[in-house]
Amino acid sequence: MVGVRMLPEPLGSAIGSLGSGLVMRLTGGYGKLKVVVFGILVAGGVGYSFCGLDTLTWLPELYLFMIGLGFMGSLTIMLVATLSAVEDEMQAVATGILYAGRAVGATIGVTASGVLFRHVLARHMPKAAARGISGDCHLEGGKGTACSAEQLDAYMYALRAVFLLSTALGIAGSACGILTRNFRLQRGPVRKT
Questions:
Q1: Mean pLDDT confidence for 66-73
Q2: Backbone phi, then psi, for 139, in 5-degree steps?
Q3: Which of 19, 47, 49, 149 could form a cystine bridge with 63, CB 3.0-4.6 A?
Q4: Is the pLDDT score of 124 beyond 60?
Q5: pTM of full prediction above 0.85
Q6: How far apart are CA 135 and CA 95, in angstroms?
C-alpha cells in the first residue's frame, strides 16, 4: 500500500518533464513556463510541509504529484536553458556540469535532512522519554502502531522540520531558476556535419 501512495510523485515527474518539453516545443520559449513550474514545486513543498496525522489522505498524494511535476519540469527547463546559453561544442560539458550539480545537491540534501531529522527527534523524544515512554514504536500484528501520542508528535515535528528545510531549499533554487536568462529556442535543428 505504501508503494501505491508514492505513485503520484513519479507520475508527476513524467508529466512535468514531458509536458514542459511539449510546451517549450509549441511556444519556442520557457520564460513564463519556468515561473509556473517553479511555483507548482514550491506550492507542493509548502503543502506537504504542513501535512499532519489528521490530514485528509488524498492531500499528501496531491502534494507529491505537485512536487514531482515541479521538480522534473524545472529540471527539463533548466537543462534546455543551459543548452541554449552555451555554444554547441560546450553543450556536453554544460549538461555534465548540470547533472553533477544535481547529484551533489541531492547528496547534500539527503545528508542534511537526515542530520536535521535526527537532531530534532533527539530534542523532542526526551520529553516523551521523561514521561516513561521509550523511543521505539512497534507494529502490533500489522494493524497499526503502538506509538504514544508524544512519540507521534515528536516524529511529526522532526518530519515537518525536514520538509520545511527541503521547501526552503526549493524556494532558493526556484528563485535562482527564475532569475536565469531566457533564450529563444530554435525551431529546427541546426547541425554541422
A1: 96
A2: -80, 140
A3: 47
A4: yes
A5: no
A6: 45
CA distance 113 to 27: 38
Other Cβ atoms less than 10 A from the Cβ of 92: the count is 11
The pLDDT tens digits for 17-43 are 999 999 999 998 899 999 999 999 999
Residues 6+ apart with CB under 8 A from 113: 162, 165, 166
What percent of the chain stands above pLDDT 90? 58
Give CA–CA dist 76/82, Å, rounded: 10
Residue with cell 506509538: 147
DSSP state of 156: H
- What cell does 100 get? 553533477
Average pLDDT, whole number, for the chain?
Answer: 86
**Single-letter amino acid code for the residue at 182:** N
Q: What phi, psi does 145 have (nearest 5°)?
A: -110, 155
Mapped onto helix, strand or coil, the DSSP state of residue 145 is: strand
Concatenating the DSSP letter of every residue in 83-126 gives: HHHS-GGGHHHHHHHHHHHHHHHHHHHHHHHHHHHHHHHHHHHH
Query: Angle at the Cα of 159 (from 36 to 107), degrees rounded to 5?
Result: 70
For residue 11, the SS3 value is: helix
Distances from the Cα of 65 to the Cαs of 2, 89, 166, 180, in angstroms?
15, 36, 16, 25
Q: What pLDDT score was predicted for residue 132?
A: 52
